[in-house]
Structure formats: C-alpha cells, structure tokens
Amino acid sequence: MKTKLPLVAAIILGIVAAIAVQRFISRQVQAKTAGVEETHTIVVAASRLPQGHNLKESDVKPGSIPKSLVREGMLDTSNYKDYVNQPLATTVDRERVLLKSDFAAKAYTLPTKLTAGMRAVTIDVSQEGGLAGLIQPGDRVDVMVTYQDQGTGKGGAEMGMRTALILPNMEIMATDNQTFAVSAFDDKRGYSTVTICATPEQALRIVNAKSQGSLYLALRSKEDIASPVPRSVNIREELTGK
Description:
By secondary structure, the chain is α+β, with helices and mostly antiparallel strands.
C-alpha cells in the first residue's frame, strides 16, 4: 500500500500540472487576441470613379474594417448590388469605402423634381445655342429666340431678322437625360437637348418660339436673381443704326 502512495501522488501532481499548463496557455492566447477586433466586410472602389459614372460590379472590391468603425450608410457585400448601374453624385477615390450618399438619389426623376403646377419642357440646342456643353442641371438661363420678322419698318422696308428675350431666369432640369451636375473634368458633358422647368404659360411660349425660329440660351450667375424685361432687337437696326 505504501508503495502505491508515491504513484498516486505523482498522478495527482501530473494532473494538477497539466491543468496549470492549460490555464497558462489559455491566458496567453487571450492576451494575444484581446486587441484583435472582429471585422466587417465592406466594399471599396477598385479604381477612381468619376462623378456621374454608373457603378458596375467590376468597379468595387471587398475590404475589411473593425466593426467599431462601421457607420450607417456604408455599402457592404449585402447591399452594394442595389446601387449597381446607379450614377455617382460625387467622385470616389481608389480604395475609398462606398457610401449610399455617394449616389444621386433615385428620386432625381423629372416628375418628382417638379413642383405642383410646373412643367418640364425640352428644347433642342446647337453647340453655340447650348453654350458648348457648359450648362448643367440646376443652372439658370435666359431663353432667347432669333426669327425672321415678317413685318415692315419705316418706308415699308422689311424688318429682317429679330432676336427676342422671351423668358428670363429659367431653371435647367436636365441636359439630355442627365438630371444632376457632373464633374467639370467629365468628357461626356456634351448634349443636344436641355429640359427647362416652366409654368404652363411659359411652356406654351417656348413651344411657339421654337416654331418661329432658333432658340438660344444665356447662362446667368446664380447670384443674379433680377429678371430683365423681355425685349426684342432688330439685327439690321443694331448693325446699321437705322
């Protein structure tokens, strides 16, 4: 019996030692992982994405950030596809996290932008008549028309060509199908039509002017809120002084 006591004691000591070693290892692992925070997978831009660009799946790639840094509005792998083919309202640099606020609101359709009683009227513009692509949605313009005056002046002389300011301080709602401003460095800023926000009476005036001659736009400063009185100018009189 006495010979078994040392063996039992050794076994007990071995068990205690094993438990102690296990606890030591566990504490070491916990110490090493204490500063490692759980991460969340978000999506970032794979390359620089310009304002106005329609997002493609190839434009993004997954990225990881600590969960404590996740903020409302960040796109992740569960929701970014909702924004594929949607236009960007701002430029997104490479590796930057994509945000919901980076995109033009889906509500930016003409019917939802129009207030009660207003109409959207689209007119064709030439390169010079449309200010060579410099107009953007949200700008304000004066609308002018140049037409052949069929009347007669002093002594029965034909009046010739006349230019008239028909509508001042009109808001541009869209250029072609673009309903939001794009970057000044975007190479796709050309357009052949502009859509103007107008009252029903102003809309009729624009349509009538289109049938009489060529329409031109004059860009206004956004700080210029005074509306000049529409007037017409006879080109022959202006050139000859007669």
